[in-house]
Amino acid sequence: MSLATPADRAPPTAPVRPFAGLRTWFTMLAICLEERLVYRGDFVIGTVMRFLPIVTQVFLWTAVFNATSRPDIAGYTRNDIVAYYLLTMVTRAFSSMPGLSGGISRSVRDGSVKKYLVQPVDYVAYLLAARIAHKLVYYVVAILPFAAIFYVCRGYFPPIPDVGTIAAYVLSLVLSFLLGFFMEATLGMLGFWFLEVSSIIFAYMLVQYLLSGHMFPIDMLSGVQTGIAGVTLADVVRWLPFEYTAYFPAAVWLGKIQGATLARDLAIEAGWVVVMAVACRIAWWRGTRRYSAFGG
Amino acid sequence: MKRYFTIFLTFARACLIRDMTFRVNFLLECVTSMGWMSMNLAFYLLIFTFTPEIGRDTGWSREPFFAFVATGLIINSIVQALFMPSAEELTEMVRTGGLDAVLVQPLDPQFMLSMHRVDFSACANGLVGIGLLGWAVSRMDSTPPPVAWLLYPLLILCGVAILYSLVIMLAAATILLGRNQSLYDFWFYLTNFSRYPAEIYAGPWGGPLRTLFTFVIPILLVVNVPARVIALPFSGESWGLMVALLVAATATLVISRLVFQAAITKYRSASS
Amino acid sequence: MVFLYTSGMHNSNRGGPADRGVDPVISVDSLAKEYRVYDKPEGLLASVTGLFHRTSRLVEAVRGVSLSIGRGEFVALLGPNGAGKTTFLKLLSGIITPSRGTARVLGHVPWERADDFRRRFALVMGQRNQLWWDLPAAESFRLHKEIYRIEPARFNRTRDELVDLLGVRGLMLQPVRELSLGERMKLELIAALLHEPEVLFLDEPTIGLDVVAQHTIHDFLKAVQARRRVTVVLTTHYMKDVAALCERVVVITHGSILHDGPLEEIVDRFTTHKIVTLDLDATPAVGRMERFGFPCEIRGPRVELRIDRTRIADVLPEILRSESVRDISVEDVPLEEIVAELFRAGPAPAGATA
Q1: Domains of chain B: which residue ranges?
Q2: C279 and C264 in one domain?
Q3: Count of domains observed in chain C
Q4: Overall domain count for chain A
Q5: Per the CB < 8 Å rule, is A215 touching B39?
């Protein structure tokens, strides 16, 4: 029985050694695909329905633009905003990791993490491989609804950017996948220290919701002062990892971030990926040591 | 009937006792819902730094808009507290045969299936809504006349009735189809359209959408009518809307009941 | 109302203090229930085609069942899993509506679900609970009192009587989810009887219970039924339940009635031979025994033969004459075996049910 839309379900926890062979890989893919298709009607409807809240948001912004005489808000015209929301859906298709942190903390709680301590398997690498498979399957099946919607809404988009921007976009997407993965994995690892990680995860989700650009483009925070001389909220958020899970790639595609700024922000994003990957590694290492010390 | 009320109180008491036993969880739930809500409020505050009102000449400036949001919070918290918990459990009940037990008892199954569980943590948002309403109204340019305050609770009840009917129709669909989690996502996505004042739905796409959600699935009447009465200057148009809300509430209650009865008749029951 | 009996059934009007012929409490006429089941696709290719087209088949859970039960009878519906017993019970309690046929319980059509009807019967399903999970039993009972509008003094009396009969007074204040299966079943039975129903439907009430609990429940049911003349219909696939509780058993397989009458009659009706066990002086050769009966099991000097009933009178003297027999016994085929064989067999032939 599914407790969330199919796209939110975690991948099957098949105890397979990663990179043990292409065949296993494809079996995993096939299983994921089959699981998806079992929920046939649910899946197609579910994917399309996830775009529905954007409709309401677009109407809201249209009403906002109607009421002011401004041509744009923080550099976004009304059409830009529509394109922005659609693009954040793409980013989130890469960076959202449903069930990852919960699954890890649960396996720590019920002891099933033990088998990874004993086997010569890299737990983190295994999780990453499973996620990649899971995501690939999702993309294969979701590409049609996504493409249809984007095609219908193509009028809202600015002209397709140049190759350099596209390259930067793709890079930012890949990095956002890794960033999302390592952040949630590290959160899950906290299960080694705290019995109920759900409150921490919830707090993370809340901050994410506000600062990832999910609700509005981060540029809009450039008018909000922090109290420290000349520093706006947008400046602060740029240095945090959250905006890279929704806002950043969308802004790149729309050409809102260029040149040196673009390079710098990509570096920040990559930097966070490294930081979180290391944090995850350390959390695993110290967590398992602590776990074994307590006899599991 | 008094009997139904007594039975409902027993259920409510049991849920309250359980919530108090698992106090930490209960508090966490309250904080969770208030957390999401405050993020949204921050977002609205941000919007109002860019514009004086939502939609040209609609009257939804900052304080009236927040009164609208507050009304939505109050209505939704009532539905979340009283009806959604039972409805969410329906799939499970169909699966385990709990529905069979209900059908055998000399009691209206619709009552049992929509009201046997109460989620008290959902009241947190409602209380915040009341506070927000007070704040917004106190800062508005035009204060609502006493008759508006008298009508407000009644209109809220009508709005709740419409949402309740929607819950019942979803329950009927669950009974017919056996399992369907996406139906509850459907609820979320549908009611999401009524988050903002109906005036935002303008233009070639907005117009038909507004008509659809006013006359066919009247979710736009739910929050808009009481909110208008309390937040916008009282006018003759308001009376028309209030009548529409009343009619919609009655119609949806009747229709949903018929649909529910039909679903029960066609109930398959998980065999063994 | 027309009473139709399965052909081949003796007109055995036995089964307790039945006034079945006068005014039956339950009468069923050609009741049938079928529904469509969609096949789940297996494998990747099937899953894809499953997006566009799904095959289905029609399952006949109950096929044209007719029977009649009088006041105070204690009837068992015996059958293997999937035989349609539970579906039949659900039809009689009004949970589902039939595809064809009619039925009346206490004068009402069950699936019309009249409140008057629902107040006069009770349904208990084994392993499926109906008590409110989070409430202590005492609260559940109070809820029952409200729902069934039981008068307070009467409620107290009935409750105390039932609680003492089953000895569960100590469990009343614990939340039901903390109790064991056996304890829960006892409380469920009490809850079902609080409103003094005239008809009691039990669906596999002893399933999953240990022997002691089963025994307790058997005794309880017998006591209750005797005291209050409740009409009881119980479905089960355990012979034990049947043997302990009822004189009348209705065997159901594949949605049809195979037999309706006393248990002993099953032997008469469904077996063609008897089992003869011989204790001989010495182990005989196989070929020697086979002329008496078949099939034949030889364990040392002990021989077990199956001999056609009609020929027993002739074969026995012959055995005694030609063999040196130390001991001989003639028995019926064990009931369990007959019933198991019945369960395995396919649906009754077309003309067998009305």
Answers
A1: 2-265
A2: no
A3: 2
A4: 1
A5: yes
Contact C84, C61 (CB under 8 A): yes
CB contact (8 A) between residue B91 and residue A1:
yes
pLDDT per residue of chain C (354 residues) written in tens, 0 to 9: 333 333 333 333 334 444 445 678 899 998 888 887 777 666 556 656 665 667 778 888 888 899 999 998 899 998 888 788 889 999 999 998 999 999 999 999 999 999 999 999 999 987 776 667 677 888 889 888 989 999 999 999 999 999 988 888 888 888 887 888 888 888 989 999 999 999 999 998 888 888 888 888 889 998 888 888 899 999 988 777 888 888 888 988 888 888 888 877 877 777 788 888 888 888 877 677 777 777 677 787 888 888 888 888 888 888 888 888 888 888 888 777 777 777 777 665 544 443
| Cβ atoms of A44 and A135 closer than 8 Å | no
Chains that touch C (3 or more CB pairs under 8 A): A, B
Strand residues in C39-149 grouped as ranges (E)? 56-69, 74-78, 100-105, 121-125
Q: A46 and B196: CB-CB below 8 Å?
A: no
Q: Is C336 a domain residue?
A: no
Expressed as residue numbers, the domain containing A15 is: 6-293
Pick from B14, B268, B272: CB nearest C139: B14
Q: Which of A53, A67, A210 is opposite residue B39, by nearest beta carbon?
A: A210
C263 and C321 both lie in a single domain: no
Distance CA A148, CA A293 (A): 54
Q: How many helices (H) and strands (E) does chain B have?
A: 12, 0
- Chain A residue at shortest CA distance from C43: A34
Could you give the 3-state DSSP secondary structure of residue C236? strand
The verdict on C109 and C45 lying in the same domain is yes
Question: Which residues on C lie below 8 Å from A38 (Cβ)?
Answer: 40-41, 47, 50
CATH of the domain at C199: 3.40.50.300
- The reply to whether A130 falls in a domain is yes
- Asked, for residue C6, whether it belongs to a domain, the answer is no
Nearest CA in chain C to B109: C113
Residue span of the structural domain in which C288 resides? 272-331
Question: How much is the ipTM here?
Answer: 0.91
Q: Is residue A1 part of a domain?
A: no
Q: Kindly report whether the peptide bond that precedes residue A18 is cis, defined as omega within 30 degrees of 0.
A: no
Residues of A in Cβ contact (< 8 Å) with B189: 49, 52-53
- C41 plus C177 within the same structural domain: yes
* C322 and C259 within one domain: no
Residues of B in contact with C106 (CB under 8 A): none
